[in-house]
Structures are given as C-alpha cells and as structure tokens.
Write a structure and sequence with these properties.
By secondary structure, the protein is mainly alpha-helical. It has one domain. The strands form three sheets. Strands 1-2 form a two-stranded antiparallel ribbon. A two-stranded antiparallel sheet has the order 3-6. A two-stranded antiparallel ribbon has the order 4-5.
C-alpha cells in the first residue's frame, strides 16, 4: 500500500498534483462564491472580454490563487518557491528584461511579416491625450499580471511536479498541449492555428525555464508578447479589439495572413517567428539549469 503513495522521493508526484489542484480549486470556488455577492465585482463580468479592468481583476485573482496553492505545497514538501521555477528573488532582473525584449521583438517581427504581404497598415492613433497615457499604463500593468498569472499556473508547480514523475519534456509537451487546448475550446472563433501557436509558445516558455533556471524570462516574454499584440500593434483577440488599444490599425487580406478574428497570434506567419525563436534561443542558452539538481547538459 505504501508504494502506491510513496516513492524514493517521498509522496508520488501524481498525489502531490492532486493535492495542489484540490487546493487551487477550493480557493477558486470559495472566491467565486464570495465575489458573486459583491456587486462591483459581479458586474465586471458584463464588461467586454478585452476590457483592462475586468481582465486585470481576472488575472489578479488567478495569480493569488496559484500563489497560495503553491505556497501550501512548498510548505508540505519543505521546498522553496525557486524549486518550482518561481523567481522569488530578483523577479525583475536581467532575465525578465531580456524576455520582455524578446516578447516585443518577436511580435514586431510578426507584424512586419504580415505588413510585407499587405495585411497590415496603420492609419493613425486610436487614443489621444490623457486617454493614451492612461491606457498605456493600465495595459502595461494588466499584461504584467497576465505574464505572472499564466506562467505560474501552467509552468511552475504543475510543470516541476509533473516532470518529477514523467520527465521534463513529456510534462512540458503535455502542459503545452493543454495550454493550447484551453485557448481553443474556451475562446470564440478559434481555429487550429491559434491552438498550435499557443501550444508552441507554451513549449518555448518551457524551454526558457529549462535553460535559464527560472520563469523570469518567460514572465517578461509573456507580458510583452500580449502587450504588443493587443495594445501596441492593436490586433484582435477572440474577435475583439482591446478597449483603449493604441493604433487605428487596418487588417486586410485572408485570415491565414492576418489571423482574422483571432488576431496576429493566429496568423500562419507566427510559425516562422516561433521557429526562429527556438533556433536562436537554443544557440544562446545551451545549458540546462532547471531542475537545478539535474545538472548541465
């Protein structure tokens, strides 16, 4: 009976994952029940999908929930948060800013490729004056919350613990497929391109964790990639433009080029950009640093 629950490293990874998911689900259920009784919060659900206030709230409570669940598991396992790739110290250090640059650069390259084939042009600014500064700051903050929330939910405790049971790359592939599937099944207007691109981007962020030793690069990349897509270059997501997006951008041409209702993330040009990112990152970050006990390879 003991072998069912315990292995050489203590409680088996599957049971640890079950406990983690149970804690997370309990916190989510409890907060959802409480929030439904608070009119100001309940009314956020009536706002557009890409309203920064509603989206920021959603990502903030997701971040809090995953941090609590991870902290509880870290106490149970007597490990530090860094063991799960969470950059508890020096969060906004060099890796974060390099990742942020990669996020801005990769999206800019993607938009440039779309523009070269006639799918994108800018007619002017969509916001002006005080609104321009307000929405710039708000969207910077909201996308930072997205970066922290989604990376800690999909590539922190879940990845580290699943990897402990089935190996890093099998775990990374499984979670990346799940990441793409959630986008595909839970968002409107989805096509296979968005499923594939989000899954591959998830796998790329797993690689950055593997080679840098923490999620700081991935958090910066994720925050900047989304900021550039929905605010800076003003693409659609789930059929909507972001409330307060920066540019009056004209997207014209077939959806395989522009991404259509899903925005540039679903353009087939994104696969060229993703392939380049894997190739360049592999060359400049050749050594394995996560999990730390595995050594370099």
């Amino acid at each position: 009976m003991r072998k069912i629950f315990f292995g050489a490293r203590g409680l088996r990874s599957g049971w640890r994952l079950a406990i983690f998911v149970g804690i997370y689900a309990a916190i989510l259920f409890g907060w959802t029940w409480v929030a439904a009784t608070i009119p100001a919060i309940a009314n956020l659900g009536q706002r557009p999908f890409l309203d920064p206030i509603a989206l920021g709230y959603q990502e903030l409570h997701g971040l809090i929930e995953v941090l609590i669940a991870t902290w509880v598991m870290a106490r149970i396992e007597r490990r530090r948060l860094q063991a799960y790739g969470i950059p508890a110290r020096n969060v906004f250090g060099g890796d974060f800013w390099v990742g942020y640059g990669w996020g801005l650069g990769s999206t800019t390259l993607l938009i440039a490729l779309i523009a070269v084939f006639g799918g994108y042009r800018v007619a002017g600014l969509a916001v002006h004056g005080g609104a321009l500064w307000y929405f710039t700051v708000v969207w910077l903050i909201v996308n930072l919350l997205i970066g922290f929330s989604e990376e800690l939910q999909f590539r922190a405790y879940l990845l580290a613990t699943l990897a402990d049971g089935i190996g890093f790359w099998i775990a990374a592939a499984a979670l990346s497929i799940g990441f793409g599937a959630l986008h595909y099944f839970l968002k409107p207007f989805e096509r296979w391109e968005d499923f594939a691109s989000t899954g591959l981007l998830g796998l790329f962020m797993c690689l950055t964790l593997r080679r840098t030793g923490s999620l700081a690069f991935a958090i910066g990349f994720h925050a900047a990639f989304d900021f550039a897509n929905i605010f800076l270059w003003s693409g659609k997501n789930a059929g909507e433009f972001a409330v307060g997006h920066l540019l009056d951008a004209r997207w014209q041409g077939p959806q395989w080029l522009t991404g259509g209702m899903l925005g540039p993330e679903a353009s087939r040009m994104v696969f060229i950009v993703i392939a380049l990112m894997f190739w360049i990152f592999d060359r400049y970050y050749p050594y394995q640093k996560f999990p730390a006990e595995s050594g370099n390879s």
